[in-house]
Fold D-methionine transport system ATP-binding protein.
Amino acid sequence: MIRLDNISKSYVTNRSSIDALKGVTLEVKKGEIFGVIGYSGAGKSTLIRCVNLLEKPSKGKVFVDGLELTSLSSKKLLASRRKIGMIFQGFNLLKTATVYDNIAIPLRLTGVSKSEIGARVDKYLEIVGLSDKKDAYPSQLSGGQKQRVAIARALSNEPSVLLSDEATSALDPDTTEAILELLLKINDELGITILLITHEMHVIQKVCDRVAVMENGEVVEQGLTKDVFTSPSHPTTKKFVNSIFNHQLTNELLENLGDNGEIVSLKFLGHSSKDPALAVVSKKFDVYPNILSGNITQLKEHPFGSLLVHIKGEESEVQRAIQYLKEQNIQVEGAGHHVKNNKRIS
Ligand SMILES: Nc1ncnc2c1ncn2[C@@H]1O[C@H](COP(=O)(O)OP(=O)(O)OP(=O)(O)O)[C@@H](O)[C@H]1O
């Protein structure tokens, strides 16, 4: 559906040059919601703007719906862009036009008939839940409503792909939730493929089937959201996963743990979150797991849990217990704290 083939983008400013994208390859499949996550400056905006060639790649090829956009003439590119809708963090509405006109004007410019414009505005305003705001001006709308108008405008061209450039970043948590629900509905009911960029784990967790993690102009990890975040291998991916759970390990807690053992963080997906693996461990081995902190969240439809556990016991038994937990598809990571003879030794 969307294929970026070895895309590089350099910005040349005065005497310096910035490599914003360094050979990025990724594929978004038809009908999925694909998220790109990364910290500020990772290259996400540049990447998404390369998909519809708002930004021209310095190297590499862009394919959308089987068509190589990077080889098209300006005229053909303009026509192809109509099949790629885009929404932005700042909504980009015309302030002096009504909701109706914000959607109608771009259609008029592409030669859509008056009656067809009326039908499309009605249809898409209904889908985004704003049928009663046709005559309102953007200044009379909340941020969430403005984003809904922008979504209706993007859909009114009947695109096969919707690009979302941090579309919820300027919205409060409840409104973000509602807009993400709307994106899920559009994907499900209209079958539109969605590529979004974000710096928020919450957005990826809620809507994305697959994800790419970006850092310093490169995709460092990509795959199914549940695979990438349950067995992250790159430090940046690990940082994003840990940001979901935010376990607090205070010095006071560490000083008072007593006994021997190791503090580990356990992460588990789906059914393992319901199995009593820790209870089994304490029966099978001479260890005593003590839960210090815990949390369960979602990765789209999959429950995803994390526990911070002090596994009390002699070193060899603790290691056997950890090995057993790993065999149950639980991701086990040392939290960097070992306890021996009532003392923290690391
Ligand atoms: N028009 C431009 N001219 C020069 N450098 C640019 C331009 N646009 C982006 N860059 C640089 O390219 C790199 C990637 O920027 P980009 O905006 O794509 O990252 P991002 O991940 O979207 O970050 P943010 O979330 O902060 O927007 C940065 O170092 C940025 O300074």
